[in-house]
Amino acid sequence: MPIPKDVFEQSLLKFFDPIRPFLDDASVSEIMINGPDTIYVERKGKLSLTNAKFASRDALVAALRNLAQFIGKPIDEFRPILEGRLPDGSRVEAVMPPAAPDGPCVAIRRFSRETLTVDKLVSFGSFTAEAAQFLRNVVIVKENTVVAGGTGSGKTSLLNALTGFIPDDDRVVIIEDNKEVQAQQPHLVQLEARPPDGRGRGEVSIRHLFKATLRMRPDRIVVGEIRSGEAVDLVQAMTSGHGGCMATVHATYPSDTMNRLETMCLMSDIEIPLSALRAQIASAVDIIVQTSRLRDGSRCVTHIAEVQGYTPEGGYHLENVFVRRYHGDDEKGRVLSTFEPTGFIPKCVETLRGHGLEIPQVIYQAAQQRQAQGLGPYPSRDPGGDNAPPPGGH
Protein backbone atom coordinates (compact mmCIF):
# COMPACT_ATOMS: atom_id res chain seq x y z
CA MET A 1 0.00 0.00 0.00
CA PRO A 2 1.54 3.38 -1.00
CA ILE A 3 2.43 5.89 1.70
CA PRO A 4 -0.08 8.80 1.78
CA LYS A 5 1.40 11.96 0.30
CA ASP A 6 1.02 14.08 3.46
CA VAL A 7 2.69 11.38 5.58
CA PHE A 8 5.57 11.18 3.08
CA GLU A 9 5.94 14.98 3.18
CA GLN A 10 6.08 15.09 6.97
CA SER A 11 8.59 12.24 7.17
CA LEU A 12 10.74 13.99 4.54
CA LEU A 13 10.69 17.29 6.45
CA LYS A 14 11.74 15.42 9.60
CA PHE A 15 15.11 14.83 7.93
CA PHE A 16 15.42 18.62 7.52
CA ASP A 17 14.67 19.38 11.18
CA PRO A 18 17.87 21.44 11.70
CA ILE A 19 16.65 24.02 9.17
CA ARG A 20 12.88 23.77 9.84
CA PRO A 21 12.83 27.10 11.73
CA PHE A 22 14.16 28.83 8.60
CA LEU A 23 11.69 27.02 6.34
CA ASP A 24 8.90 28.34 8.57
CA ASP A 25 10.34 31.88 8.73
CA ALA A 26 8.75 34.11 6.09
CA SER A 27 11.66 36.60 6.32
CA VAL A 28 14.18 34.01 5.06
CA SER A 29 14.59 34.08 1.27
CA GLU A 30 17.45 31.57 0.93
CA ILE A 31 19.06 28.83 3.00
CA MET A 32 22.63 27.84 2.09
CA ILE A 33 24.10 24.63 3.53
CA ASN A 34 27.88 24.36 3.08
CA GLY A 35 28.28 20.93 4.59
CA PRO A 36 26.60 19.71 7.78
CA ASP A 37 28.20 22.29 10.10
CA THR A 38 27.91 25.55 8.16
CA ILE A 39 24.49 26.96 7.38
CA TYR A 40 23.79 30.52 6.17
CA VAL A 41 20.46 32.25 5.58
CA GLU A 42 19.54 35.33 3.58
CA ARG A 43 17.15 37.95 4.94
CA LYS A 44 16.41 41.16 3.01
CA GLY A 45 19.34 40.46 0.70
CA LYS A 46 21.88 40.05 3.54
CA LEU A 47 23.63 36.80 4.51
CA SER A 48 24.17 35.67 8.09
CA LEU A 49 25.76 32.56 9.60
CA THR A 50 23.43 30.51 11.82
CA ASN A 51 24.10 28.11 14.70
CA ALA A 52 22.11 25.35 13.01
CA LYS A 53 23.92 22.10 12.20
CA PHE A 54 23.09 18.65 10.92
CA ALA A 55 24.16 15.82 13.24
CA SER A 56 26.65 14.54 10.66
CA ARG A 57 27.43 14.43 6.98
CA ASP A 58 25.48 11.17 6.78
CA ALA A 59 22.41 12.91 8.24
CA LEU A 60 22.55 15.56 5.53
CA VAL A 61 23.11 12.95 2.83
CA ALA A 62 20.10 11.00 4.15
CA ALA A 63 17.94 14.12 3.93
CA LEU A 64 18.94 14.65 0.31
CA ARG A 65 18.41 11.00 -0.61
CA ASN A 66 14.91 11.14 0.85
CA LEU A 67 14.23 14.32 -1.09
CA ALA A 68 15.45 12.61 -4.28
CA GLN A 69 13.05 9.74 -3.59
CA PHE A 70 10.21 12.21 -2.91
CA ILE A 71 10.66 14.01 -6.24
CA GLY A 72 11.58 10.89 -8.22
CA LYS A 73 15.08 11.88 -9.32
CA PRO A 74 18.30 9.91 -8.92
CA ILE A 75 21.23 11.14 -6.84
CA ASP A 76 24.46 9.22 -6.22
CA GLU A 77 28.20 9.52 -6.85
CA PHE A 78 27.63 9.19 -10.61
CA ARG A 79 24.79 11.76 -10.63
CA PRO A 80 25.81 14.13 -7.84
CA ILE A 81 23.56 17.10 -8.73
CA LEU A 82 19.95 17.26 -7.58
CA GLU A 83 17.36 19.84 -8.61
CA GLY A 84 13.92 19.74 -7.08
CA ARG A 85 11.37 21.24 -4.74
CA LEU A 86 10.41 20.72 -1.13
CA PRO A 87 6.73 20.11 -0.34
CA ASP A 88 6.22 23.84 0.34
CA GLY A 89 7.50 24.72 -3.15
CA SER A 90 10.97 25.88 -2.09
CA ARG A 91 13.53 25.24 -4.83
CA VAL A 92 16.48 23.00 -3.95
CA GLU A 93 19.83 22.78 -5.72
CA ALA A 94 22.17 20.22 -4.13
CA VAL A 95 25.66 19.02 -5.09
CA MET A 96 26.93 15.83 -3.47
CA PRO A 97 30.44 14.45 -3.07
CA PRO A 98 32.62 13.77 -5.00
CA ALA A 99 31.56 16.88 -6.98
CA ALA A 100 31.44 18.80 -3.67
CA PRO A 101 34.34 17.37 -1.62
CA ASP A 102 33.41 19.35 1.52
CA GLY A 103 29.70 18.91 1.00
CA PRO A 104 27.00 18.10 0.44
CA CYS A 105 26.35 21.73 -0.55
CA VAL A 106 22.73 22.84 -0.79
CA ALA A 107 20.93 26.07 -1.73
CA ILE A 108 17.22 26.33 -0.92
CA ARG A 109 15.41 29.26 -2.52
CA ARG A 110 12.27 30.24 -0.62
CA PHE A 111 9.29 31.78 -2.38
CA SER A 112 6.76 34.05 -0.75
CA ARG A 113 3.44 32.37 -0.03
CA GLU A 114 1.87 35.76 -0.65
CA THR A 115 1.24 36.68 -4.28
CA LEU A 116 3.55 39.56 -5.18
CA THR A 117 1.71 42.09 -7.33
CA VAL A 118 2.98 45.09 -9.26
CA ASP A 119 1.24 47.38 -6.76
CA LYS A 120 3.22 45.79 -3.94
CA LEU A 121 6.47 46.15 -5.87
CA VAL A 122 5.68 49.84 -6.40
CA SER A 123 5.03 50.24 -2.66
CA PHE A 124 8.41 48.59 -1.96
CA GLY A 125 10.14 51.12 -4.23
CA SER A 126 11.13 48.56 -6.88
CA PHE A 127 9.91 51.01 -9.52
CA THR A 128 7.31 53.76 -9.92
CA ALA A 129 3.60 53.78 -10.65
CA GLU A 130 4.35 55.44 -14.01
CA ALA A 131 6.81 52.68 -14.95
CA ALA A 132 4.19 50.12 -13.88
CA GLN A 133 1.66 51.81 -16.18
CA PHE A 134 4.11 51.62 -19.06
CA LEU A 135 4.79 47.91 -18.42
CA ARG A 136 1.07 47.20 -18.09
CA ASN A 137 0.40 48.73 -21.49
CA VAL A 138 3.26 46.98 -23.32
CA VAL A 139 2.15 43.62 -21.87
CA ILE A 140 -1.45 44.22 -22.96
CA VAL A 141 -0.43 45.01 -26.56
CA LYS A 142 1.80 41.90 -26.67
CA GLU A 143 5.24 43.47 -26.78
CA ASN A 144 7.75 40.64 -26.27
CA THR A 145 9.30 41.25 -22.85
CA VAL A 146 12.46 39.85 -21.26
CA VAL A 147 13.13 40.26 -17.53
CA ALA A 148 16.90 40.21 -16.98
CA GLY A 149 19.04 40.26 -13.86
CA GLY A 150 21.54 38.40 -11.75
CA THR A 151 20.96 35.58 -9.28
CA GLY A 152 18.66 36.65 -6.47
CA SER A 153 17.79 39.98 -8.11
CA GLY A 154 14.04 39.31 -8.18
CA LYS A 155 13.57 38.25 -11.83
CA THR A 156 11.02 35.53 -11.18
CA SER A 157 9.08 37.65 -8.68
CA LEU A 158 8.85 40.45 -11.22
CA LEU A 159 7.85 38.05 -14.01
CA ASN A 160 5.10 36.68 -11.75
CA ALA A 161 3.84 40.19 -11.15
CA LEU A 162 3.94 41.18 -14.83
CA THR A 163 1.84 38.15 -15.81
CA GLY A 164 -0.93 39.81 -13.82
CA PHE A 165 -1.30 42.28 -16.72
CA ILE A 166 -2.14 39.51 -19.21
CA PRO A 167 -5.86 39.66 -20.10
CA ASP A 168 -7.93 36.91 -18.49
CA ASP A 169 -9.28 35.65 -21.83
CA ASP A 170 -5.79 34.78 -23.11
CA ARG A 171 -4.56 31.17 -23.11
CA VAL A 172 -1.22 31.23 -21.28
CA VAL A 173 1.32 28.39 -21.58
CA ILE A 174 4.17 28.42 -19.03
CA ILE A 175 7.33 26.37 -19.64
CA GLU A 176 9.83 25.80 -16.82
CA ASP A 177 12.58 23.54 -15.53
CA ASN A 178 11.07 23.77 -12.05
CA LYS A 179 7.65 25.22 -11.35
CA GLU A 180 8.14 28.76 -10.02
CA VAL A 181 6.01 31.09 -12.15
CA GLN A 182 2.66 31.70 -10.46
CA ALA A 183 0.43 33.32 -13.07
CA GLN A 184 -3.12 34.09 -11.96
CA GLN A 185 -4.97 33.75 -15.28
CA PRO A 186 -7.90 31.30 -15.43
CA HIS A 187 -6.82 29.72 -18.75
CA LEU A 188 -3.39 28.45 -17.75
CA VAL A 189 -1.29 25.52 -18.97
CA GLN A 190 1.85 24.78 -16.92
CA LEU A 191 4.52 22.51 -18.40
CA GLU A 192 7.63 21.31 -16.60
CA ALA A 193 10.79 19.75 -18.04
CA ARG A 194 12.03 16.40 -16.75
CA PRO A 195 15.59 15.01 -16.71
CA PRO A 196 16.32 11.46 -17.90
CA ASP A 197 16.09 8.61 -15.43
CA GLY A 198 19.06 6.54 -14.26
CA ARG A 199 19.19 4.74 -17.60
CA GLY A 200 19.00 7.92 -19.66
CA ARG A 201 15.33 7.45 -20.56
CA GLY A 202 12.32 9.72 -20.42
CA GLU A 203 13.95 13.13 -20.77
CA VAL A 204 11.58 15.99 -21.60
CA SER A 205 13.59 19.14 -22.31
CA ILE A 206 12.51 22.78 -22.48
CA ARG A 207 12.98 22.56 -26.25
CA HIS A 208 10.66 19.53 -26.46
CA LEU A 209 8.02 21.41 -24.49
CA PHE A 210 8.47 24.54 -26.60
CA LYS A 211 7.83 22.65 -29.82
CA ALA A 212 4.72 21.05 -28.29
CA THR A 213 3.52 24.43 -27.04
CA LEU A 214 3.51 25.95 -30.54
CA ARG A 215 0.84 23.38 -31.49
CA MET A 216 -1.31 24.05 -28.42
CA ARG A 217 -2.74 27.39 -29.63
CA PRO A 218 -1.06 29.63 -27.06
CA ASP A 219 -1.98 33.32 -26.86
CA ARG A 220 1.02 33.88 -24.60
CA ILE A 221 4.16 31.82 -24.02
CA VAL A 222 5.99 32.38 -20.74
CA VAL A 223 9.38 30.71 -20.22
CA GLY A 224 10.54 30.68 -16.60
CA GLU A 225 14.21 30.98 -17.53
CA ILE A 226 16.16 30.83 -20.80
CA ARG A 227 19.37 28.89 -20.18
CA SER A 228 20.52 27.28 -23.41
CA GLY A 229 19.58 26.41 -26.98
CA GLU A 230 15.86 26.88 -26.34
CA ALA A 231 16.58 30.60 -26.82
CA VAL A 232 16.47 30.08 -30.58
CA ASP A 233 12.99 28.52 -30.32
CA LEU A 234 11.77 31.50 -28.30
CA VAL A 235 13.26 33.99 -30.76
CA GLN A 236 11.66 32.20 -33.70
CA ALA A 237 8.31 32.09 -31.91
CA MET A 238 8.55 35.83 -31.17
CA THR A 239 9.21 36.61 -34.82
CA SER A 240 6.58 34.27 -36.28
CA GLY A 241 3.38 35.72 -34.88
CA HIS A 242 3.50 34.61 -31.23
CA GLY A 243 3.45 38.07 -29.64
CA GLY A 244 3.43 38.75 -25.94
CA CYS A 245 6.11 36.19 -25.06
CA MET A 246 7.79 36.65 -21.68
CA ALA A 247 10.94 35.11 -20.22
CA THR A 248 13.77 35.68 -17.77
CA VAL A 249 17.50 35.70 -18.55
CA HIS A 250 20.61 35.98 -16.39
CA ALA A 251 22.31 39.23 -17.47
CA THR A 252 23.67 42.36 -15.79
CA TYR A 253 22.56 45.08 -18.23
CA PRO A 254 20.06 45.31 -21.11
CA SER A 255 22.89 45.22 -23.66
CA ASP A 256 24.25 42.07 -21.98
CA THR A 257 20.80 40.50 -22.33
CA MET A 258 20.98 40.70 -26.12
CA ASN A 259 24.47 39.20 -26.14
CA ARG A 260 23.39 36.41 -23.77
CA LEU A 261 20.42 35.55 -25.98
CA GLU A 262 22.75 35.45 -28.97
CA THR A 263 25.18 33.13 -27.18
CA MET A 264 22.39 30.78 -26.08
CA CYS A 265 20.90 30.69 -29.59
CA LEU A 266 24.31 29.55 -30.83
CA MET A 267 24.11 26.62 -28.38
CA SER A 268 21.26 25.12 -30.41
CA ASP A 269 21.63 22.66 -33.27
CA ILE A 270 20.10 25.13 -35.74
CA GLU A 271 22.67 26.68 -38.05
CA ILE A 272 21.95 30.26 -39.07
CA PRO A 273 24.31 33.01 -40.26
CA LEU A 274 25.36 35.21 -37.36
CA SER A 275 24.21 38.43 -39.00
CA ALA A 276 20.78 36.94 -39.68
CA LEU A 277 20.56 35.62 -36.11
CA ARG A 278 21.39 39.02 -34.63
CA ALA A 279 18.82 40.76 -36.81
CA GLN A 280 16.23 38.17 -35.76
CA ILE A 281 16.98 38.61 -32.04
CA ALA A 282 16.71 42.40 -32.38
CA SER A 283 13.39 41.99 -34.18
CA ALA A 284 12.10 39.48 -31.62
CA VAL A 285 12.71 41.28 -28.31
CA ASP A 286 10.80 44.51 -27.74
CA ILE A 287 11.25 45.41 -24.06
CA ILE A 288 13.96 44.53 -21.52
CA VAL A 289 13.23 45.02 -17.82
CA GLN A 290 16.48 44.94 -15.85
CA THR A 291 16.54 43.97 -12.17
CA SER A 292 19.37 44.17 -9.64
CA ARG A 293 20.11 43.58 -5.97
CA LEU A 294 21.71 46.73 -4.55
CA ARG A 295 24.50 46.70 -1.99
CA ASP A 296 22.02 47.33 0.85
CA GLY A 297 20.23 44.09 -0.11
CA SER A 298 17.20 45.75 -1.72
CA ARG A 299 15.94 44.45 -5.05
CA CYS A 300 14.69 46.83 -7.68
CA VAL A 301 14.29 47.54 -11.38
CA THR A 302 17.26 49.52 -12.72
CA HIS A 303 16.36 49.92 -16.41
CA ILE A 304 13.40 49.59 -18.73
CA ALA A 305 14.85 49.59 -22.23
CA GLU A 306 13.35 49.29 -25.69
CA VAL A 307 15.16 47.43 -28.47
CA GLN A 308 15.46 49.65 -31.54
CA GLY A 309 17.10 47.19 -33.93
CA TYR A 310 20.46 45.92 -35.12
CA THR A 311 23.03 47.10 -37.65
CA PRO A 312 26.32 45.39 -38.56
CA GLU A 313 28.16 48.64 -37.91
CA GLY A 314 26.62 49.59 -34.56
CA GLY A 315 25.45 46.26 -33.17
CA TYR A 316 22.30 46.08 -31.05
CA HIS A 317 20.64 49.47 -30.57
CA LEU A 318 18.75 49.90 -27.30
CA GLU A 319 17.33 52.98 -25.60
CA ASN A 320 16.36 53.45 -21.96
CA VAL A 321 12.79 54.54 -21.34
CA PHE A 322 13.28 54.55 -17.56
CA VAL A 323 16.56 54.36 -15.63
CA ARG A 324 17.52 54.33 -11.95
CA ARG A 325 19.64 57.24 -10.69
CA TYR A 326 21.69 56.87 -7.51
CA HIS A 327 22.07 59.62 -4.90
CA GLY A 328 24.35 58.11 -2.26
CA ASP A 329 23.36 56.46 1.03
CA ASP A 330 21.24 57.55 3.98
CA GLU A 331 22.38 57.44 7.63
CA LYS A 332 21.36 53.77 7.89
CA GLY A 333 23.41 52.72 4.86
CA ARG A 334 20.40 52.34 2.56
CA VAL A 335 20.93 53.26 -1.07
CA LEU A 336 19.09 56.43 -2.10
CA SER A 337 17.85 56.27 -5.66
CA THR A 338 15.05 57.37 -7.97
CA PHE A 339 13.56 55.64 -11.00
CA GLU A 340 13.10 58.26 -13.68
CA PRO A 341 11.98 58.59 -17.30
CA THR A 342 14.86 59.50 -19.59
CA GLY A 343 12.85 61.58 -22.03
CA PHE A 344 13.19 59.03 -24.82
CA ILE A 345 9.87 58.49 -26.62
CA PRO A 346 9.64 54.73 -27.35
CA LYS A 347 8.67 53.53 -30.81
CA CYS A 348 5.94 51.33 -29.27
CA VAL A 349 3.90 54.50 -28.69
CA GLU A 350 2.16 53.99 -32.06
CA THR A 351 1.29 50.39 -31.21
CA LEU A 352 -0.15 51.52 -27.88
CA ARG A 353 -2.23 54.23 -29.54
CA GLY A 354 -3.59 51.66 -31.97
CA HIS A 355 -5.03 49.86 -28.94
CA GLY A 356 -6.38 53.02 -27.34
CA LEU A 357 -3.51 53.22 -24.84
CA GLU A 358 -0.84 55.82 -24.21
CA ILE A 359 2.59 56.05 -22.60
CA PRO A 360 2.71 57.83 -19.22
CA GLN A 361 2.74 61.63 -19.35
CA VAL A 362 5.97 61.74 -17.33
CA ILE A 363 7.83 60.45 -20.39
CA TYR A 364 6.61 63.38 -22.47
CA GLN A 365 7.35 65.77 -19.60
CA ALA A 366 10.93 64.47 -19.36
CA ALA A 367 11.35 64.94 -23.12
CA GLN A 368 10.02 68.51 -22.90
CA GLN A 369 12.34 69.23 -19.99
CA ARG A 370 15.34 68.13 -22.03
CA GLN A 371 14.30 70.41 -24.86
CA ALA A 372 13.74 73.33 -22.45
CA GLN A 373 17.27 72.80 -21.13
CA GLY A 374 18.57 72.93 -24.69
CA LEU A 375 19.71 69.31 -24.57
CA GLY A 376 17.77 68.27 -27.65
CA PRO A 377 16.47 64.73 -28.23
CA TYR A 378 17.48 62.02 -25.81
CA PRO A 379 20.95 60.82 -26.95
CA SER A 380 21.48 57.27 -28.11
CA ARG A 381 23.58 55.34 -25.65
CA ASP A 382 24.17 51.83 -24.43
CA PRO A 383 21.80 51.15 -21.50
CA GLY A 384 24.64 49.25 -19.86
CA GLY A 385 26.60 52.46 -19.59
CA ASP A 386 23.86 54.86 -18.55
CA ASN A 387 24.49 56.27 -15.08
CA ALA A 388 26.70 54.34 -12.68
CA PRO A 389 26.56 50.52 -12.48
CA PRO A 390 23.96 49.33 -9.98
CA PRO A 391 25.73 49.26 -6.61
CA GLY A 392 26.07 45.92 -4.89
CA GLY A 393 25.47 42.33 -5.90
CA HIS A 394 23.68 41.09 -8.96
Question: How are the SSEs ordered, and which strands pair?
Answer:
Elements: H1 5-15, H2 20-23, E1 28-34, E2 39-43, E3 46-49, H3 57-71, E4 81-85, E5 91-95, E6 105-109, H4 118-123, H5 129-140, E7 145-149, H6 155-162, E8 172-176, E9 188-192, H7 206-213, E10 220-223, H8 230-238, E11 246-250, H9 254-266, H10 274-284, E12 287-293, E13 299-311, E14 315-329, E15 335-341, H11 349-354, H12 361-372
Parallel strand pairs: 7-11, 7-12, 8-9, 8-10, 10-11
Antiparallel strand pairs: 1-2, 1-6, 2-3, 4-5, 5-6, 12-13, 13-14, 14-15
Summarize this entry quickly:
This protein has two domains: 105 residues, Beta-Lactamase (2-Layer Sandwich), CATH 3.30.450; 255 residues, P-loop containing nucleotide triphosphate hydrolases (Rossmann fold, 3-Layer(aba) Sandwich), CATH 3.40.50. 29% of the residues lie in helices and 25% in strands. It is globular.
How would you portray this structure in words?
This protein has 394 residues and is an alpha/beta fold. It folds into 2 domains: 5-109, Beta-Lactamase; 118-372, P-loop containing nucleotide triphosphate hydrolases (Rossmann fold), CATH 3.40.50. It is built from 12 helices and 15 strands. It has helices at residues 5-15, 20-23, 57-71, 118-123, 129-140, 155-162, 206-213, 230-238, 254-266, 274-284, 349-354, 361-372, and strands spanning 28-34, 39-43, 46-49, 81-85, 91-95, 105-109, 145-149, 172-176, 188-192, 220-223, 246-250, 287-293, 299-311, 315-329, 335-341. The strands form 2 sheets. The chain has a 9-stranded mixed beta sheet, with helices on both faces. Helix 8 crosses helix 9 (254-266), helix 8 (230-238) packs across helix 10 and helix 9 (254-266) packs across helix 10. The chain is globular, with a radius of gyration of 22 Å. Residues 380-391 have low confidence and may be disordered.
